[in-house]
């Protein structure tokens, strides 16, 4: 497959949950008006699957690491509400990202690896890492 197929696939999953892809790539660039309804998606790294049999010379399984970030605005009035909301988002996203019905059309494997939640002062940042096994054919 390709970068675009994976990006569009994950974007589709996120859009089904009410999020839209941000035009920004870094967390410090995202304006506060986008916190709560947008996400950032980046392909971080990749490596060859060394366990692939040599008899499958026409295929390469590229193991990629993708990073998904969502934000929740923080203020004195809504601090606990948005903290709880982002935890609910995490629960839903783990299920949706791991569900083969949502990704089997564009990659071989898509798997949630981990997530972390950080307090960034004016907002909460959830970062989730996703393992993608993509098939590259010659």
Structure, explained:
- The protein has 3 helices and 5 strands, in the order αβββααββ.
- With 138 residues, the chain is of the alpha+beta class.
- It has a single domain, classed as 2-Layer Sandwich (STM4215-like), CATH 3.30.2000.10.
- It has a 5-stranded mixed sheet, covered by helices on one side.
- It is elongated, with a radius of gyration of 16 Å.
- The mean pLDDT is 85.
Bin the helical content: 25-40%
Order of helices and strands: HEEEHHEE
What is the fourth-level CATH superfamily? Phage tail protein-like
CATH class: Alpha Beta
**Would you tell me which CATH topology applies?**
STM4215-like
Question: What is the element layout, followed by pairings?
Answer:
Layout: H1 3-16, E1 20-21, E2 38-48, E3 59-73, H2 79-98, H3 100-103, E4 109-119, E5 123-137
Parallel strand pairs: 1-2
Antiparallel strand pairs: 2-3, 3-5, 4-5
